Amino acid sequence: MSTNDFLAEWDRDNFFHPSTHLAQHARGETPTKVIKTASGVYIEDRDGNRLLDAFAGLYCVNAGYGRKEITDAIAQQAGELAYYHSYVGHGTEASITLAKMILDRAPANMSKVYFGLGGSDANETNVKLIWYYNNILGRPTKKKIISRWRGYHGSGLVTGSLTGLELFHKKFDLPVEQVIHTEAPYYFRRENLDQSESEFVAHCVAELESLIEREGADNIAAFIGEPVLGTGGIVPPPEGYWAAIQAVLKKHDILLIADEVVTGFGRLGTMFGSEHYGFEADIITIAKGLTSAYAPLSGSIVSDKVWKVLEQGTDENGPIGHGWTYSAHPICAAAGVANLKLIDDLNLIANAGSVGAYLNQSMKSALADHPQVGDIRGEGMLCAVEFVKDRDSRTFYDAADKIGPQVSAALLSQDKVIARAMPQGDIIGFAPPFCLSEQEADKVVAATVRAVKTVLG
Ligand code: PLP
């Protein structure tokens, strides 16, 4: 038995994988995939297969793989001080420096950053902070959070509830009652095909207004949204959407959380997605791109408006009763400092913008005429291709046909390119590292064309 055979067996027998068909995997019906090393946009498995990772892990390895600047910073920090906590005012050179670097890059209304470990826990923090905020302001009923169907905000209790995808609710007794959902700004999937984009925005706004009316603005604390819907299908908002939503929220004194776990630090070719679309958040969630996933770190960036109330709360009630052992972990913070510096030094955000535009344009030129391609969309270094059974009537395939998973499997087996079959709908998503070159983008497009041809003709 080779080492790989042992690993496959140990994997099946011991490892509970996230977001996996547990029974099939345990029975050995799905392959064990053991990734060994990586460099640039390529990962390599233990069998020596070199794969072009056009999804940057889970859209997180923004700086690309194998960056010595980041791994050296991690090693140096581990040697100097692997851990100290950040409770009762403690910090480290790395965590304090990183907080400043984040605020230097954040929108002007932002004030402080609380560090967590992943996007889910950062959004849990956000909800707690908002409940605390409204209690301090003497508004004990103003607690519900509005999210969108197809939004993705994590898989904890509240965050799994915020996530608007059925798979994350079913059999988990979610969503919890404090979370309510509204229409996704998904123009391609609008119910009324005659609607123009601006009519569809008006429809989304009317849906939000009627939800607020039904629930009562006095019972609604916040609205959470990704600037571009990510896991729900990689869907940029229709023109004018965010300005219109922000106006409704302001009118009803409802806070706005921009979940920038995917879009923060450059994926749209700009530093933050909220700025990209011209809206102003009260809290911004960050994670993935903060360290390019070299170490687990997230953050809740809170605005002056929220911060002032939190300060008032601790003057009235004592220290805030919220914290994780690993908040602002120095090794993760050192990875963040090195990553943000590298992204600046190599001008990677500009590259995400220009090569991302090239990738989107090339994908459109290559596939827009295919009868089973219903939509090709993207922004910055994000791109998605959505398949339909019939384009004129916009008829979708049955989920059981697994068209998206088949196309992504063909990309992998034929050309060793990783694209993600998005979990709801026949959509394949691309979110490569920011260092992708035009030649590598060409390779991704050619492989996609070949895979679509194999599966759909
Ligand atoms: N928010 C968004 C927009 C995400 O895309 C994700 C993960 O993909 C999360 C939150 C949850 O982050 P994590 O998986 O690190 O908990």
UniProtKB/TrEMBL annotation:
Say if the entry is tagged with keyword Transmembrane helix.
Answer: no
Q: What is the top EC class of this enzyme, as a single word?
A: transferase
Pfam annotation, one family: Aminotran_3
**Gene3D superfamilies reported in the protein's UniProt record:** Aspartate Aminotransferase, domain 1, Type I PLP-dependent aspartate aminotransferase-like (Major domain)
Q: Which CDD domains match?
A: OAT_like
Look up keyword Transferase and say if it applies. Answer: yes
Q: Which Gene Ontology CC terms are recorded?
A: cytosol
| Entry EC number(s) | 2.6.1.-
The source's domain of life comes to Bacteria
Stretches assigned to coiled coil: none
Q: Which keywords describe this protein according to UniProt? A: Aminotransferase, Pyridoxal phosphate, Transferase
Q: Which cofactor does it need?
A: pyridoxal 5'-phosphate
Q: Which GO terms describe its molecular function?
A: pyridoxal phosphate binding; transaminase activity
Q: Which family does it belong to?
A: Belongs to the class-III pyridoxal-phosphate-dependent aminotransferase family.
Tell me the protein's name.
Putative aminotransferase
Per the UniProt record, the source organism is Granulosicoccus antarcticus IMCC3135
